[in-house]
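User: Can you recover a sequence for this backbone? Please restate the input before giving your answer.

Assistant: Of course. Working from this structure:
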């Protein structure tokens, strides 16, 4: 019987360590540096484990930069992206002497140059380019097409190059790309590589020394089979097979979901059973405020009954929030449920806890870890 109060996130630290071991081994094999994307999960316990493997940090807010520093990531290992960096965030990142700003517009480039000058610093920057590559994922997490807000669009590249040549407080080191998230088709990364080759040649031919290429992240996980490990080897190999860069150019990636996604589960208890005309609802004590992805993206997550059972029925698994979108799954087949039963929503380690909020003035959701207490389905 599960004695902890629900709902809660449960992190399998053994699985996280296994993922990290596989990731580090593959990255060394192909000579590619990895920054962990904090936006996937910035839980301090999780970050402390990730930092211990020598990964860098990919941050998209000033507070993520601060969290990375507080968890032991050194400034030289931190990159800072984001389409709307505030002046305060830029100044704080300069004070932390981060490795690189990923700049997303010509105006941002000008602002960083001015702010760096005001504190007598030189900011290392890479231009995030919008390569207009379709990520073959859902629209809400596609970031690299011409209709997206992210990155310097092709029409602005000449202005950016011109600005770089006249600015004294920024140091251009390379190019950054990120086309989306939850990508499982390796051909997408092959197509990205072709665009990287084109822009690498374009910048070098226009007098810009490119020593750093950041390929972003986006490697997906199998939400239908939570036991399937991410194929880091195939991910790195596709870049090495398709990139055509000069020797000595440093390759970096930013992985988040594939590192932490499968190490987290959400435990929630059935409050009430409720029959409608054509279906039966299992109303659980976790809400969309605790786990937003199904409401936000209509995403699929495998759901299991904690105690198992034989006879199965179909249920809509819904939460207590006063919104019709507070639904985790429809017509999911599970062993028969009763009030008090616990169900487990799988593969929530990425974009789960970080999106949690207190809508309806609900309690903050708690987290437990397998190296502190053992919970098994």
């Amino acid at each position: 019987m599960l004695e902890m109060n629900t709902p809660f996130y449960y992190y399998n630290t053994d699985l996280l360590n296994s993922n990290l071991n596989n990731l580090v081994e593959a990255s060394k094999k192909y000579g590619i540096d990895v920054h962990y994307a904090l936006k996937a999960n910035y839980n301090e316990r999780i970050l402390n484990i990730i930092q211990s493997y020598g990964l860098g940090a990919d941050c998209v807010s000033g507070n993520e930069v601060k969290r990375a520093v507080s968890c032991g990531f050194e400034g030289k290992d931190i990159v800072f992206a984001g389409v709307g960096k505030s002046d305060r965030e830029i100044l704080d990142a300069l004070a932390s002497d981060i490795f690189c700003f990923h700049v997303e517009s010509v105006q941002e480039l000008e602002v960083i140059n001015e702010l760096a000058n005001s504190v007598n610093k030189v900011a290392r920057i890479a231009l995030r380019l919008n390569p207009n590559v379709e990520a073959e994922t859902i629209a809400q997490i596609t970031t690299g097409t011409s209709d997206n807000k992210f990155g310097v669009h092709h029409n602005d590249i000449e202005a950016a190059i011109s600005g770089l040549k006249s600015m004294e407080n920024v140091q251009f080191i390379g190019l950054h790309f990120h086309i989306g998230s939850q990508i499982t088709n390796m051909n997408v990364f092959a197509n990205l590589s072709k665009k990287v080759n084109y822009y690498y040649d374009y910048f070098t031919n226009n007098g810009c020394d490119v020593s750093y290429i950041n390929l972003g992240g986006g490697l997906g996980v199998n939400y239908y089979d939570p036991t399937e490990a991410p194929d880091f080897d195939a991910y790195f190999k596709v870049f090495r097979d398709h990139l055509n860069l000069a020797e000595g150019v440093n390759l970096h990636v930013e992985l988040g979901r594939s590192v932490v996604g499968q190490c987290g589960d959400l435990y929630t208890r059935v409050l009430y059973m409720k029959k409608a005309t054509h279906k039966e609802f299992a109303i659980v004590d976790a809400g969309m405020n605790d786990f937003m992805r199904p409401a936000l993206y209509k995403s699929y997550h495998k759901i299991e009954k904690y105690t198992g059972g034989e006879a199965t029925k179909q249920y809509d698994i819904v939460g207590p929030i006063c919104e019709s979108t507070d639904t985790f799954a429809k017509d999911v087949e599970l062993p028969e449920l009763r009030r008090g039963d616990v169900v487990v929503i799988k593969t929530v380690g990425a974009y789960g806890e970080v999106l949690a909020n207190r809508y309806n003035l609900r309690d903050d959701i708690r987290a437990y870890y397998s190296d502190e207490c053992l919970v098994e389905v």
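That completes the design. Residues 318 and 327 are 4 Å apart (CA to CA).
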